[in-house]
Amino acid sequence: MNERKDYDYDLPRDLIAQQPLRNRTDARLLVVDRSAGRIEDAHVRDLPDLLRPADCLVLNDTRVIPARLVGVRERTGGRWEGLFLDADEHGLWRLLGKTRGKLVAGESIRLRDRAGEPALRLGMVAALGGGEWVAAPEDEGDALEWVERVGHVPLPPYIRGGKMTDEDIVRYQTVYAERRGAVAAPTAGLHFTRELLTRLEARRIATARVTLHVGVGTFRTIATERLDDHVMHAEWGELGSEAIRIMTDARQRGGRVIAVGTTVVRVLETAAEGGRPAPWSGRTDLFIRPPYRFRAVEGLMTNFHLPQSTLLVLVRTFGGDALIRGAYAHAIADRYRFFSYGDAMIIV
Predict the structure, then answer these.
(1) What is the pLDDT of residues 141-164, one digit of tens each?
(2) pLDDT at residue 219 greater than cutoff 70
(3) pLDDT of residue 124
(4) Does 84 have pLDDT greater than 80?
(5) What's CA 98's distance to the chain center, in Å?
(6) CB-based burial of residue 274 (10 Å sphere; 0-12 exposed, 13-18 middle, 19+ buried)?
(7) Within 13 A of 141's CA, how many CA atoms are on the CB side?
(8) DSSP labels, 95-145
(9) CB contact at 8 A, 110 and 72
(10) Are 196 and 25 in contact (CB under 8 A)?
(11) What φ, ψ does residue 133 adopt, rounded to 5°?
(12) How far is residue 118's CA from residue 27's CA, in Å, rounded to a whole number?
């Protein structure tokens, strides 16, 4: 299973969720038991009864920033759209942008806020290739503060063409989001509510937190025919000593470490490169594919992923290829909702 075509599947377009459920925990949950080779239907609200006391759920506490930017090219009056990626210590922004015609260094973009009013001016400094630019804001100030003021929630293009509504500001964010920096939500975590977290705690199911700032690469499918030729996008993450302590305590009590989302898997497996997780901070470009051997996680809760994506490769590598292909076929036949605002599965 080392070719992109091996990770394709047909999905009816009407199964791509366009809106979140009003109650997050009403989402369906497909339970995949690897040892028994069995799949069962449940709901996210059933998690406290599906898990064992002493298990540990590991959550990604990244916070989605409204990174989608809209503006006007001052030289031509043409519309410009972009995505804020990050800023350096000199205050220069790195953007992914698109517009009609050819944008050249030295041009200025006048950003528009969510009400359509003129806001910050950006000077385009240099093209980096692949649609990426370095830009210099005309006014001083923290880059993330500016983005919070003028940006839009960067929904994936398969949700309403990427166009946000006011509801998305709250719903495309986990209830435990803290650390700003993601341009996409860690979608498995969107199913949790504070009430569900309280119920899990009452069942003595621990939670630990890590950070991975989800990047624009999460929207991209594999571009090469062979998986080994794919260049994985890098994302910034961190695993602290407190999270390691909580996971270690859970294992000593006979519990399992269950990652909530593929982003958590990437953090834990990167940090366990030496054999077991150790405190870590930095950028990871880990691409988990067969015959990868997992070191840090015993379970995974995740949404249903795009065909030919690195996330689908990770899930099938973890859950077992035939079993997960069967689980996806079951989910399609039973009309589960797919992708970011869709339903979930838990693999144990």
Answers:
(1) 899 999 999 999 888 889 998 888
(2) no
(3) 96
(4) yes
(5) 23
(6) exposed
(7) 13
(8) EEEEESS---TT-EEEEE-TTS-EEEEEEEEEEEETTEEEEEESS-S-HHH
(9) yes
(10) yes
(11) -135, 155
(12) 40
The candidate with the shortest Cα–Cα distance to 61, out of 259, 210, 239, is 210
Domain extent at residue 189? 4-64+168-347
Q: Convert the pLDDT of each residue in 289-318 to its tens digit.
A: 999 999 999 999 999 999 999 999 999 999
- Average pLDDT over all residues of the chain: 94
| Whether residue 10 is found in the same domain as residue 24 | yes
Each residue's pLDDT tens digit, 170-187: 999 999 999 999 999 999
Query: Taken in order 289, 290, 293, 294, is the CA torsion positive or negative?
Result: positive
Task: At 57, list the tokens.
Answer: 């759920």
Please report which helix (H) or strand (E) contains residue 173, including its range: none
User: In a 3-state reduction of DSSP, which class is residue 181?
Assistant: strand
* Strand pairing category for 56-60 and 206-212: parallel
**Residue 180 is part of a domain; what is its CATH number?**
3.40.1780.10
Bridging pattern class, strands 118-129 and 206-212: unpaired
* pLDDT higher than 70, residue 57: yes
Q: Do both 129 and 258 map to the same domain? A: no
Greatest Cα-to-Cα distance within the chain, rounded to the nearest angstrom: 65
**Buried-state track 37-56, b at ≥16 Cβ within 10 A, e below 16:** eebeebebbebbebbeebbb
Q: Tell me the CATH number at 134.
A: 2.40.10.240
